[in-house]
Amino acid sequence: MRKPIIAGNWKMNKTAAEAEKLINELKPLVAKSKPEVVICVPYTDLWIAKNAIAGSKIKLGAENVAWADSGAFTGEISAAMLKEIGVEYVIIGHSERRQYFGETDKTVNMRLVQALKNDLKPIVCVGETLEEREKNKTKKVLKKQILEGFDGITDFTNIVIAYEPVWAIGTGKTATAEDANKTIGYIRSLIKKTFGAEVAKNLRIQYGGSMKPGNAKELMAMRNIDGGLIGGAALKAEDFAGIVNYKG
Ligand code: 13P
Q1: Residue 14 has what pLDDT?
Q2: Is 39 a domain residue?
Q3: Which CATH number fits the domain that encloses residue 25?
Q4: Could you tell me if residue 245 is inside a domain?
Q5: Which atom, in ligand 1's list, is nearest to the CA of 210?
Q6: pLDDT in tens, 135-170
Q7: Is the pLDDT of residue 230 over 90?
């Protein structure tokens, strides 16, 4: 059985003081949650978030990790720095990093290797743009992202994949539950073919893109969808809790 995992991706939102407030509002609302609950917060919020989640079920994540151990990489944050704070999860290869900051499948792979080496649990994002979708290139794009992004990886125990169609991010357009399920099914079949049936069976794959309390139940009912990676709705305690508690 794959345990559902709902993760918030705060992106570049919330100062440290705002982060503490949001977590304090969120804690009682998710106290009885069944899925695994993660918040991936900006680096500057990590310490305060670590203290604020103490005693709750909420787990801590970062939004990226450097591929090198240390050294001359201005602006990067290392796995050791994250581990010392108590970070457990790390998002890798979000489409916004691919789109605005030159992230490639190769650098995704390098960051992934580094995360695993340091016992961080990666949430690796894949997904097609609107243009790619309209040109019927979704499968081709996903295949490249997965084969290159996961090149050389053998142990998937701690890995989560987030399928985030770029056209559904922050747009209010959600993939229909059937559509998301079908595409995630394709990702799972590709994983099966490349890395084996056991890996495919146990690997958790989230959907991300305008997921809200109102559509979470339908999406989570799909057999291939094991969770959500939530942007906008993770910034309000009731909305995020509404997704986490999708079963009611
Ligand atoms: P939205 O939920 O705001 O569409 O963002 C999804 C996302 O990019 C999560 O990583």
Answers
A1: 98
A2: yes
A3: 3.20.20.70
A4: no
A5: 4
A6: 999 999 999 999 999 999 999 999 999 999 999 988
A7: yes
What is the best residue among 229, 239, 240 to mutate for testing ligand 1's pocket, by most ligand atoms within 8 Å of CB? 229
Catalytic residue numbers read: 94, 164
Any alpha helices (H) in 61-207, and if so which ranges?
Answer: 79-85, 95-100, 105-117, 130-134, 138-149, 177-195, 197-202
DSSP H or E segment with residue 204: strand 204-208
Q: Has residue 226 been placed in a domain?
A: yes
Domain assignment present for 244: no
Q: Which are the contacts of 86, defined by CB distance < 8 A and separation ≥ 6? A: 50, 60
Report the C-alpha gap between 128 and 112 in whole angstroms: 20
Q: What is the pLDDT of residues 3-19, one digit of tens each?
A: 999 999 999 999 999 99
How many domains in the chain? 1
Q: Ligand 1 centre and the CA of 77: distance in Å? A: 22
Give the residue numbers spanning the domain of 217.
5-233
In which band, very low, low, confident or very high, does the pLDDT at 197 lie, cut at 50, 70 and 90? very high
8 lines ligand 1 (CB under 6 A): no
Overall average pLDDT of the 91-113 stretch: 98
Q: Which long-range contacts (CB under 8 A, 24 or more apart) does 24-30 make?
A: 24/52, 25/237, 26/58, 26/237, 26/240, 26/241, 27/52, 27/53, 27/56, 27/58, 29/237, 29/238, 29/241, 29/244, 29/245, 30/56, 30/57, 30/58, 30/240, 30/241, 30/244, 30/245
- The overall average pLDDT reported for the chain is 97
